[in-house]
Write a structure and sequence with these properties.
Blueprint (H helix, E strand, L loop, with lengths): L5 E6 L5 H11 L3 E3 L2 E3 L13 E3 L2 H9 L3 E7 L2 E6 H9 L3 E5 L2 H10 L4 E6 L3 H11 L4 H15 L7 E4 L3 H16 L6 H12 L3
Helix pairs in contact: 1-7
Bound molecules: guanosine-5'-monophosphate (5GP).
Guanosine-5'-monophosphate binds next to strand 5, strand 6 and helix 4.
């Protein structure tokens, strides 16, 4: 069975990357969105095991010690990490795995798994993005300012990504993300098994 593709989706806070990744797994077959662990507090409406596995700092550090994460990073004072086992299980079953993670984590995954596809989501304009962040009303002004500082750092990582996805219309952005992943699955480098079968068959012909 062909392994699933690993795709990393990052983006500025408020660019709508969660909506895009959630839309992808809801509307298109064959995708699984990884659920991360975090030490940040749950936001209103968030559920344990759905948005995140919420951990205390000591529990998170215990998981680090047990080598449970594919990657983890510190972001605005909290830990965030991708549980390794579920990702591997889904990829082995041929399911395309989506990691919605920030830039440092993305770089760590890319170093470990070079064939991973990296997609950076941006809002159609910076004005729209800042407005979306403020409209959320879940963050204090101080936290918003810290996220803006974060964006300045994140911006410097964009050249290391494979695709820039402009989230102007949600359905359209979801469709384009599916297209990016499927196009990538057709790359010659992704089809070693298939090429081996062809080579074996041709080798048997006189
Ligand atoms: P939020 O607190 O808004 O849910 O997430 C903050 C940032 O952490 C987002 O950029 C999100 O993509 C990122 N993030 C979520 N889970 C993980 C993870 O497992 N690893 C890393 N490195 N970043 C994550």
């Amino acid at each position: 069975m062909k392994r699933g593709m690993l795709t990393i989706v990052s983006g500025f806070s408020g660019a709508g990357k969660s909506s895009v990744t959630k839309g992808l797994v809801a509307d298109y077959p064959g995708y699984w969105l990884s659920v991360s662990c975090t030490t940040r507090d749950p936001r209103e409406g968030e559920q344990e095991g759905r948005e995140y596995y919420f951990k205390t700092k000591p529990d998170f550090e215990k998981l680090i010690g047990e080598d449970s994460f594919l990657e983890f990073a510190e972001y605005t004072g909290n830990y965030y990490g991708t549980p390794k086992q579920y990702v591997e299980e889904h990829l082995a079953r041929g399911i395309n795995v989506i990691l919605e993670i920030e830039v440092q984590g993305a770089m760590k995954v890319k170093a470990k798994i070079p064939e991973a596809v990296l997609v950076f989501v941006v809002a159609p304009s910076m004005e729209t993005l800042i407005r979306r962040l403020r409209d959320r009303k879940t963050e204090t002004e101080e936290k918003i300012q810290s996220r803006i500082r974060q964006m300045k750092t994140e911006f410097t990582y964009i050249p290391k990504y494979d695709y820039l996805l402009v989230n102007d219309d949600l359905d359209d952005a979801v469709r384009r993300l599916d297209e990016i992943i499927r196009t990538n699955a057709s790359r010659v480098a992704e089809n070693g098994e298939m090429l081996k079968d062809i080579e074996n068959y041709l080798g048997g012909l006189s």
